[in-house]
Design brief:
single chain, alpha/beta, Rossmann fold, 2 domains, 6-stranded parallel sheet, 6 strands, disordered C terminus
């Protein structure tokens, strides 16, 4: 089931990829260690030529913030932004500074944070466990090591500007085609009707046409 999104974001027409190629973003909710922020902070702490913008609910992760205070608040190339509204101007302001999103989560059904950044036109750098299919629009980390995160960030940053723009555009188009409420509704409906067919003894998947009334509550 493709995860939907809470915001459809515009394609960043004015972004200059040579200017933002060394800037990346981590964006996520609670569960910072689960979602790999500790690894990302350690990776960028030793990469002073690369900028990391961290957007998350710090007030809900007080123990994490205490342990990683030096990385979050005393490392010049790491910027602790805090939680931002994806529908607000600050979210897009940070997006326009960055070329990609870094999200090495250890387990997800599908990572809404990663697909939200794809909707914003960022190149996704994700773990396999994030559950997001990035195909040729992003990169899947080969493992969860800090060294792999560094190598992947450097590799993406060194791509030609037109290549980065194509990847970002493909990520945005994929999000618009797959990760929307409309597509989620279609796929969910298809799954429900397929289950109903199988339970009735028909093993074939449901391929439409879509009924106008619920099979559980037929029209009068």
């Amino acid at each position: 089931m493709p995860i939907s999104t809470c915001a459809l974001l515009p394609w960043p027409e004015q972004k200059h990829y040579d200017a933002c190629r060394a800037n990346f973003r981590w964006f996520g909710s609670q569960g910072f260690v689960h979602k790999g922020l500790d690894l990302v902070l350690e990776a960028f702490a030793d990469m002073p030529d690369y900028q990391l913008y961290v957007c998350g609910p710090f007030q809900k992760e007080k123990e994490f913030v205490k342990v990683f205070y030096p990385e979050l608040y005393q490392t010049p190339n790491i910027h602790a932004i805090g939680w931002v509204d994806v529908n607000g101007p600050e979210f897009l302001e940070v997006v326009n500074k960055c070329v990609g999103g870094v999200y090495p989560s250890c387990a997800e059904g599908q990572a809404g944070a990663a697909t939200t950044l794809m909707h914003a036109g960022l190149v996704p750098l994700v773990s396999y466990e994030s559950g997001v299919d990035v195909d040729d629009c992003g990169v899947v980390f080969k493992d969860h090591s800090i060294q792999t995160i560094r190598e992947t960030v450097r590799m993406v940053s060194q791509l030609p500007a037109d290549h980065l723009q194509r990847m970002a555009r493909k990520a945005w188009e994929c999000a618009r085609a797959v990760h929307t409420r409309e597509n989620f509704a279609r796929e969910f409906q298809k799954a429900i009707f397929t289950i109903l067919k199988i339970n009735s003894g028909d093993p074939s998947p449901y391929n439409g046409p879509w009924p106008t009334a619920s099979p559980l509550r037929p029209a009068a």
